[in-house]
Amino acid sequence: MAISGPPRLLVLLTLASAMLATACHKKEEHAEPKEDAEEMEGDAGAHAKAAAHDRADAGASGAHAAEPPRKFAVPFAWEASQADALARTRGFLGAMSAENARYMRSHGEAFFTALAAGEKPRATILTCADSRVHTTAFSAAPENDDYMIRNIGNQLGNAEGSVEYGVRTLHTPVLLVMGHTGCDAVKAAMGNLSRESEPVRRELAGLRVGKSTPDHDHAPRDPGTASTDASQAWADAVRANVHHQVKASIAKFPTDIEEGHLTVVGVVYDLRNDLKQGHGKVVVVNVNGQTDPDRIAAFERAISSAPPPSFAAAPAHDDPHAGPASAADPSRMSLRQLLQNAPLKTSARKPERAEKSEHDRSAPVPAVPKTH
Description:
By secondary structure, the chain is of the alpha/beta class. The protein has a domain at 119-341: 3-Layer(aba) Sandwich (Beta-carbonic Anhydrase, Chain A). 47% of the residues lie in helices and 9% in strands. It has helices at 6-60, 85-116, 160-169, 184-190, 198-204, 214-217, 223-252, 254-258, 293-304, 309-313, 335-341; strands at residues 123-128, 146-151, 174-180, 263-270, 281-287. The protein is elongated, with a radius of gyration of 38 Å. The termini are far apart.
């Protein structure tokens, strides 16, 4: 039966409304699983993040110590200022590359071929790790001449194996113990070490210096005097540590010293002129345990004197650092060269000797002429 007029329009509107309602209901039914899926994915992500965090914590505690080390990107971005760590890194590495290229050009293949042939240093040098202390202060050609050992406070105990290798395996005739004024390791040992990390405290344990300084232990009477006293105490502690390391070295190598195969020399590189002999002076303070200023002065004069003609005319053939006879000029020879190669002449008069007592067990200083 046909429907016409307004009733037909009403029926059509009713059917359209019903179809629209059905469509919306189906859309909601399809949307609910999606929301559930998103919620499940969110829960899974949260669990994954929590698990990753737990793994990171376990790795920090050593649970994953066997895992390979982390790798970081190589920095390449331009720094914001010259004070940035990246700027300083770039500056150092750039200078290193340029200086190495210059060094290669200036020395040539023959120089490096000779170095590669074997190690024949004349001095084992035990010095501080301080960046201000380098062989350029006392040696123009340290390659294959200076067997360098460095640690904080120039301590034998922290490098005993290396020192023994230099003396016993490389057979260096000189063991040079070099401290320096302004040594922060000595200053730290003079104060309260509890503020330092455990590895630093362990390395400083071998230093033997006084603990009492005016600016640490009590109020000074006069600020100017206190500053002077503190500087002097610091310099005295540096020297005391050199004496202690020389003493330990003598105890380790007594036979080598007694037989004349080794001379242990303690020096202070005086950056601050605390010893009043000039800024940058390498001051001898101990030779084989002898510390008497007059004997040290006589020893220095003796090793600085011209070698006898026989030595100048016949340098050792197996000494790669020995030059022609004209090279025996003492102004061109280092302390180590003189200690090793220059026999110390004795005068017609009997050399001065230090009387030994029960309290003086120091090894003898190489014979020196009596001075006037």
